[in-house]
Amino acid sequence: MRTFLLNISSPDGKLFSGEAVMMTLRGIEGDLAVMAGHVPFITSVKPCDVKLLLPDGTEKIGHSDGGLLTVAADGVTLLGSFHW
Amino acid sequence: MGANIKALKTRIRSVDSTLHLTRAMGLVASSKIRRANEAMNGGKQYAAAFGSVVDLLTACPECAHSPYMKKPEGERTCLIVIAGDRGLAGGYNANVFRLVAEMHYDRIVPIGKRACDRYKGEFFSSEDFNGVQATNMARKLCAAYMAGEFDKLGIVSTKYVSMMTQEAMVTWVLPLERPEQAEKVAAVFEPDEESILNTAVPDYVAGILMRCVRESFASEVAARRMAMDSAGKNAQSMIDELQLQYNRARQGAITQEITEIVAGAGE
Question: Of A52, B13, B14, B28, which sees the most CB atoms within 10 A?
């Protein structure tokens, strides 16, 4: 399964850095999922639960209080207030 | 002579207890340095990551009309002043306050007990300042900025140059400046550049605020360690000098006693 590099940072520090298969969250215009090979993309994130699917098949759920999602060729970054 | 000896002994003891105190404070500061540095680097990374996205957005011509980018009409300035929770850190707090005194300001938001006492504001600890507090403060300030309560927002904090050197500095946060080298990216913006920028700015300000608080705290512990080191050295040299005086006085008393006895026996 193809994976992408994901970084999640909050003002308190880096909360996740590693490979992920899929990330689901709520963008300003609706729910969205990011997978490997997503088009370069920048959007605001609404307060929501963020669901991660990791390469070993486990799911991880965190909560974002709003922030910024950047999808670039070299990785995906979620910035903003966040906690597991 | 006897009274002099006693006085010297008391002084030596009191300087010695000061020495213990400075040593203990120095040790506490050293133990905090590593954690403070890690936190500072974390804060720097976050602010840099957010900064690069905000640079990208401000470079877009579509964002030129954002209220966060308009040229300030007046000179009303709001300053966030970050000082320590405690004193005994050399010139750490004084340097920050001196820089503030040299500047023009209309409103001050203090962080750190020393700054809160001085500028009379809601209390925020600079050591335990967390992301939630930073986000709340940034949102409030951004709302006030949007409402036109002030034209410029700056943060007065301390730059951590090295273990030995820390400098008070001011970081201007709002209005946002357009980066000189505009980098064009082919990305999809949802819904559009300006809306993303407007919603991202409070989080961006929170990131910068957090970075400054963490950097200031790292500077504070480094400054305190250096201050306690030199205070300890001073106390030690003072004890050495007093000890010498004490020994001389004691020696003098003994010599005098012997002379008196010898003189008495000779008669």
Answer: A52
- Residue at token pair 């689901």: A24
Asked whether the beta carbons of residue B39 and residue A13 sit closer than 8 angstroms, the reply is yes
Separation CA B80–CA B89 (nearest Å): 21
Q: Looking up tokens 């990551």, which residue turns up?
A: B49
Q: How far is A40 from chain B (nearest CA, A)?
A: 5
Residue A34 Cα, gap to closest chain B Cα (Å): 14
Residue B175, preceding peptide bond in cis (omega within 30° of 0):
yes
The answer to whether the Cβ–Cβ distance between B187 and A72 falls below 8 Å is yes
pLDDT digits (tens, 9 = 90+) for A45-66: 989 999 999 999 899 999 988 8
Residues B160/B167, Cβ–Cβ less than 8 Å: no
Tell me which amino acid residue B194 is: E
Counted domains in chain B: 2
Which residue out of B40, B133, B190, B194 would a mutagenesis test of the A interface target, given it has the greatest number of A Cβ atoms within 10 Å? B190
Please say whether the beta carbons of B154 and B168 come within 8 A: no
The domains of chain A are located at 4-83
Mean pLDDT on B12-38: 91
Cross-chain Cβ contact B186/A40 below 8 Å: yes
- List the CATH code of the domain at A4-83: 2.60.15.10
Candidates A10, A32, A46, partner chain B, best to mutate (most B CBs within 10 A) = A10
The distance of A67 to chain B (nearest Cα, Å) reads 6
Q: What is the pTM of this model?
A: 0.85
CATH number at residue B211: 3.40.1380.10
Does the pLDDT value for residue B75 go beyond 80?
A: yes
**Do B237 and B221 belong together in one domain?**
no
